[in-house]
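pasting for ref
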Amino acid sequence: MKFKKNMLCSTLIRHCLIVSICLFIIACGNDKTEQQDSTVTTYNFNSSNHQTLHNISDISNQPKTVIPSDIEAYRARYANFVQTLGLKNKPNIIKIQDTSNKEALALDKDFIFLRQKYHDDSKILQILSAYQCFIPDCSAIIQDTEYFYPNMTILEAYQTIIMDKYTKVLNNIDVIHEYDYVLKNKQTTTIDLQSQATLQNKKTQPYQYVKFAWENPNRLIITLSPKEEICLPYRYNSITTFIQETNGVRTKRYEKKLPTFSYPADLVQFVAQSCACAMGMGNISHIIPENLDDLSKGNLIKPDTQYCDLLDSKRKELWEKYMQDSRIITILQHEQKMYRAEYSPIVDIDSISIESQLSTQQISPNN
């Protein structure tokens, strides 16, 4: 009997030990789970893809992003120089004509050096992207009307110009700076800037398209073409050529006059008067003569509503005279749309046929 009691006690002790061990294991498991739950997600500096989860203890041991002292020094000197020039921290309007300005030259030299030094560090390059050259095309070797970028490919030269920001190589850099991706495959590409503006809800876009044309693997031509504007009869494409040489890239920019408005003199004169009327009434913005070439200035008439009086009768005469010329009829349709914005804003000019235009009675400005 005593032996059976001892056996029972031993069995109970063993069961208690087993239960205690199980409870201990469960408790440890819960603690480990809580530790695993105490994790955070870390993200790259400039990326939408997050990295693998790390324990808090691991993250605390990771090095923090520290801006190098030479970058900090450059930023401080840049800000001080901008303030000295009285530009109120708006570097996009910096235009220094005196290339002998020592501080401007020194800052540009440091700007180029730092971009080269940290060319593999996307974080630092993102910081430097907020700055620009003080002297136009500070990264280039300027030779008369050409700009040379030593030891670069065409893509690298293009990206360098974008980083310089203040440049004479590319016209309206803000319009085309985001399209460097089309250069990588060396495929001729045309981008409709008007469609892009519509998709991006931009109210104004003065350019029709930008074209990246590869004549061969070593020659790129970038053409920026303005939107058609009947009040500016002389329009110009802005063209930049990139030529790959063994020791670098040579670039040059020039303008090419478009033949769009090679129209009869009576039409050109009529459109000029209609534009003066529209500007006088406030239907369109005033044209700044300083932005025009000599030929365009010669055709520009100052804003004045006195030119509005006889536009309807003159338009009808031109319509009858040039009815068989679709180009001129298109110009007259555009002109009338601009003119009617004041007198008949509800009229849809595009829906009016040529026949109905010819039969339309003269509209008096007083109607």
